[in-house]
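INTERNAL AUDIT FORM
Audit reference: QA-55
Scope: verify that the stored structure record matches its stored sequence.
Auditor: D.O.
Record contents follow.
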Amino acid sequence: MGDRKRLRYGMVGGGIGAFIGAVHRKAIALEETADLVAGCFSSRKEKNQETGDFYGIAADRLYASYEEMARAESTREDGIDFVSIVTPNATHYEVAKAFLEAGIHVACEKPLCFTVEQGEELERIAKEKHLMFAVTYTYTGYAMVKLARELVAAGEIGNIVNINAEYLQDWLIDEIGGGNQTTTKMSVWRTDPAKSGISNCVGDIGTHIEDTVAYITGLHPKKVAAVLDNYGMDLDLNANILVEYENGVHGVYSCSQVCAGHLNGLVIRIFGSEGSLEWVQEEPDYLKVTKKGHPDQIYHRGTGYITGMAAERNHIPSGHPEGLTFAFANIYHGFMADVLECVNGHAPEKAGDYPSVSDGVSGVRFIHAVVNSGKNGSGWTEV
């Protein structure tokens, strides 16, 4: 028999009506190389059954618990090749660990887990069992973010001297002073420490800044000094963070969910000795490049002068906007290609172009350092 061409996957979480689960399924479908064949979509029996019926999941592959799913799928000849974990933060660690121990590749939502120790354990298990593990930090999947990475690596803006990034939203503005009286469906768990962990805003969107900057520049925070604002809630809704990187360069991160008029305002600005780059998530098909002493240049996704990974992961012609689902698809493209190699007995020597479990661990370290700095008078705190 020849090599397999398609994969089988299962999902934990993501019942009908869940936002992020639907995004993952659509992104995987865009790649057209994996079929959804199993799931434990909800802890609520009715919701789980409804979702299974909608996606045509066989009765014996619709599971009441993720533990049962991991055990059963690992013993089937036609068992799943990977699992997509789209549950709230609190369960990421235990679900991922169960599937890793069952020998199943994992793609997991961020943040990876609650503690650094948990993340390091997942990283160790994945390495020992030679399993692929993707953490879906969405924005590294965008084509123009990939172009930014390649331009930085090529020295187009010289040596990096400063980094400025923000991620501003307003969807939790009604929580200010609310005394933990949540006002939106999603905020019921986002602002609950039992479900979100030690951070809401930094854990939810601040880690996207950290990972996207690291992807573009290769720079990771060495230490941080942070101010976090809870506005009467148990967890942070706003954070301002000074960053020092491993090479001594400094940066500023701002993340907030209470900035009126801002919907999903991730902006990454990289400043170098010879120029700068700026990428705005709400206009993701464009990358602004400024060379010292020259006019601004605007690179457009999908055009003939775009090369490298940004060209390879271009889905549709320029002028037809690509967005969130395409970015997720690009992450799954690399991950599923590696899983398929493993399934066919050709395990890759290193992971492809997608956020790995190591990136997930870095995100957890960043969250803890920021929160600890905020608790200790905003003093510099090692990451």
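Auditor finding: record pair retrieved intact. The radius of gyration is 21 Å.
Action required: none
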